[in-house]
Write a structure and sequence with these properties.
This protein has 188 residues and is mostly helical. It has one domain: Tetracycline Repressor, domain 2. The protein is 77% helix and 0% strand. It starts with a helix and ends with a helix.
Amino acid sequence: MVRNIERRMALADAGIQVLAEEGARGLTHRAVDAAAGTPRGTASNYFPTRDDLIRALVGRIEERLTPAPEMLAALEKRTPDPALFADYVRDVVRRLLSDPHVAIALFELRLEATRRPAVADALGAWRRQAFDADVAFNESAGLPGGRTKIALFHYAIDGLMLDRLTVPVESTLSVDAAVNRLVAGILR
């Protein structure tokens, strides 16, 4: 059984790579098999439909973007204030930039969600759940900012990521400086 889980994860990782490199139109079972180095038909055995494959990619993106427990443990020892909030935001940005295939695949899925209701359903459910979890975490940690401000941070981080992963508008402003200014402006 462990081997099946490992292969499923490897196929999902290959799907993320295909999605990031080829776009949603290039995401096929055959392309996933080729990227994973598995025999033809393996991806369709694990994910019989394209919608099953998309749901698996969304789940794997969530796993790959989950913060490291040791990082969370270190941050939760600190006093809740805007500086701590900025460090949490900085960690999100760091995780996205350190794994650009995941960030790009996520943008590809968001675009594909505008064309395919099944993608919108899978991605939308995950995003709403993740957003609610962010709001609950923020409240339980005693961090500044409520639901609306957390939404504004999601919008801001999405824009920052799209900018940094594609064609930066301002290359002299560091990511840390951008995060500091966003936190100062939104939490004001």
